[in-house]
UniProtKB/TrEMBL annotation:
It comes from Brooklawnia cerclae. It is an enzyme of class 2 (transferase). Belongs to the class-V pyridoxal-phosphate-dependent aminotransferase family. Csd subfamily. One of its GO terms (molecular function) is selenocysteine lyase activity. Keywords: Lyase, Pyridoxal phosphate, Transferase. The keyword RNA-binding does not apply. It catalyses: (sulfur carrier)-H + L-cysteine = (sulfur carrier)-SH + L-alanine. Its cofactor is pyridoxal 5'-phosphate. This is cysteine desulfurase. The lineage of its organism: Bacteria, Bacillati, Actinomycetota, Actinomycetes, Propionibacteriales.
Length: 427
C-alpha cells in the first residue's frame, strides 16, 4: 500500500502545526464571523485531505466487493482491504494481520468481545470493569452478566481521578472468580491513563482475560499490544483521522481461535448445510457480510498519515496542549477540572464545570464564538454520578491544535461565565 504524503515534521521531530493544518481544509472555516476553534477531538478527529482522497480514489477507481469477486476490481478491492488489515497490525505491533478484526467502531468491537467471551460465563463468575468506563465498555458487560448470571464488579476511583488500586486490592476485586477484566486505557472524561500492564499482571495471575478500550489511547500514544498486556484491544478509526464506520478489535490469535462467532452471514463460514455450519478461522469468523471496505482503506491512509508525523511527536504535542488547557482553566476561579490537573499519566480529554453555567448552555455560547467543545455526560453517566455532577464540559485537542486556540477557549469561557453572571443578576 502506498504511503500518504504529509508535510509535517522537522528533523528534530518537533511538530510543524501550521504545515499539518494546511492538510485540513476544515480549519479554513469560520462559524459566523469567528474562526473555527475545534476542541472536540476526543469525540471525533478531523480528517486530512490525504485520507479523503484515498477513500475517493478507492470508490472512483477500485470499487468492488471483497473476497467474492474474482475479476480485476474484486482483486484490487480485496488487496486494499487486506492490506489495510496488515497496516493496522503493524501500527499496533500485532503478531500478524490474522489478529485484526474489523468492526464498525469501538462499540461494536467491545460488544463482540463481551458476547463471545460471555458465551462461557456462568453464575458465580465475575466480570470486573471500572466506574470510569464509557457506556460502550459498561452496557455490554451488564447485558452479558444479566443473561448469564455472572456478577459485575468495578474499580472505584481516588479523589484525583485515578484508578483506586489500593481499595481494589483490599477488597480482593480481582480474584479466583474473575473471568474478564474490561478497562479503558485512557478515560474519555478524566483523561486518566490507567496502568494496564499492572492490572493485566493481576488479571492473568487468576487466569482472567483483559479487554482494553483503547479508543482514547491508540490515537494519542504509541501502541504496542504485547507490551500493553491486553488480550483484546478495541479502538476506532474516526478518532485518529480516519473515517467513521470502521473500528478494530485486536486479539491474541490463540484467544480469537477459541471464541465463537458473533454475527452470522456470508464470509464468516467454512461449510454451510441445512443441518448446521462450520466457521472460518479468525479474523474472518467475526466479519459477517460485506465489510466497510472503503473505510478500511481510509483507516490505512490515516495510519500512514499519523505515522509520518510520528506517534511520539503526537503524544508530546498532545501533552503540551493538555498542559496549556489545564494551566489556562486553572486561572479561572469559576472552573473546576474533573480528574488529574497535571500532565502525568494523563490523556488529552479535559472535562470541567463552570459555576452557575450548565454545560449545554456553555457549549452553545462558546459555539456562538466559533469554539467547539462537548457538553453532557460524554457517554459516562455513572462516572459523573460518582463525581457528584450531572454533566460537564469537555475540551480536547489533537496534534493539529494550537496554543492560541487554547487561549481563545480560556478567554471565551471567561466571557461566557461573565455573560451568565450578569444575566442571572438581571443586569
Amino acid at each position: 500500500m502506498n504511503s500518504v504524503p504529509v508535510s509535517t515534521v522537522v528533523a528534530d521531530r518537533d511538530l510543524d502545526v501550521a504545515a499539518v493544518r494546511a492538510d485540513f481544509p476544515i480549519f479554513e472555516r469560520r462559524v459566523g464571523q469567528w474562526p473555527l476553534v475545534y476542541l472536540d477531538s476526543s469525540n471525533t478527529s478531523q480528517k486530512p485531505r490525504q485520507v479523503v482522497d484515498a477513500i475517493s480514489d478507492h470508490y472512483l477507481h477500485h470499487n468492488a466487493n471483497v473476497a467474492r469477486a474474482m475479476h480485476t476490481l474484486g482483486a484490487e478491492a480485496t488487496a486494499a482491504f487486506e492490506g489495510a488489515r496488515a497496516r493496522v497490525a503493524s501500527f499496533i505491533k500485532a503478531a500478524g494481520p490474522d489478529e485484526i478484526v474489523f468492526a464498525k467502531n469501538s462499540s461494536e468491537a467491545l460488544n463482540l468481545a463481551a458476547n463471545t467471551l460471555g458465551a462461557s460465563l456462568r453464575p458465580g463468575d465475575e466480570v470486573v470493569i471500572s466506574v470510569m468506563e464509557h457506556h460502550s465498555n459498561l452496557v455490554p458487560w451488564q447485558l452479558v452478566c444479566e443473561r448469564t448470571g455472572a456478577t459485575l464488579r468495578w474499580f472505584d476511583i481516588t479523589a484525583d481521578g485515578r484508578l483506586d488500586l489500593d481499595k481494589a486490592d483490599a477488597e480482593g476485586l480481582i480474584n479466583e472468580h474473575t473471568k474478564v477484566v474490561a478497562l479503558t486505557w485512557v478515560s474519555n472524561v478524566l483523561g486518566t491513563v490507567n496502568p494496564i500492564a499492572q492490572v493485566a499482571e493481576r488479571a492473568h495471575a487468576f487466569g482472567a482475560v483483559l479487554v482494553v478500550d483503547g479508543s482514547q489511547g491508540v490515537p494519542q500514544r504509541p501502541t504496542d499490544v504485547t507490551a500493553l498486556g491486553a488480550d483484546l484491544l478495541a479502538f476506532t478509526g474516526h478518532k485518529m483521522c480516519g473515517p467513521t464506520g470502521i473500528g478494530v478489535l485486536w486479539g491474541r490469535l490463540d484467544l480469537l481461535e477459541q471464541l465463537p462467532p458473533f454475527l452470522g452471514g456470508g464470509e464468516m463460514i467454512e461449510v454451510v448445510r441445512m443441518e448446521g455450519s462450520t466457521f472460518a478461522p479468525p479474523p474472518h469468523r467475526f466479519e459477517a457480510g460485506t465489510q466497510p471496505i472503503a473505510q478500511a482503506v481510509g483507516l490505512a491512509a490515516a495510519i500512514d498519515y499519523i505515522d509520518a508525523i510520528g506517534m511520539e511527536a503526537i503524544q508530546e504535542h498532545e501533552e503540551q496542549i493538555t498542559a496549556h488547557i489545564l494551566e489556562g482553566l486553572g486561572t479561572l476561579d469559576a472552573v473546576t477540572v474533573l480528574g488529574p490537573t497535571e500532565v502525568v499519566d494523563r490523556g488529552g480529554a479535559v472535562s470541567f464545570t463552570v459555576d452557575g453555567v450548565h454545560p449545554h448552555d456553555l457549549m452553545q455560547l462558546l459555539d456562538s464564538r466559533g469554539v467547539a467543545v462537548r457538553g453532557g455526560h460524554h457517554c459516562a453517566a455513572p462516572l459523573h454520578q460518582r463525581l457528584g455532577v450531572q454533566s460537564s464540559s469537555r475540551a480536547s485537542g489533537y496534534f493539529y491544535t494550537t496554543l492560541e486556540e487554547v487561549d481563545t477557549l480560556v478567554s471565551t469561557i471567561e466571557w461566557a461565565h461573565d455573560f451568565f453572571t450578569r444575566k442571572s443578576a438581571g443586569r
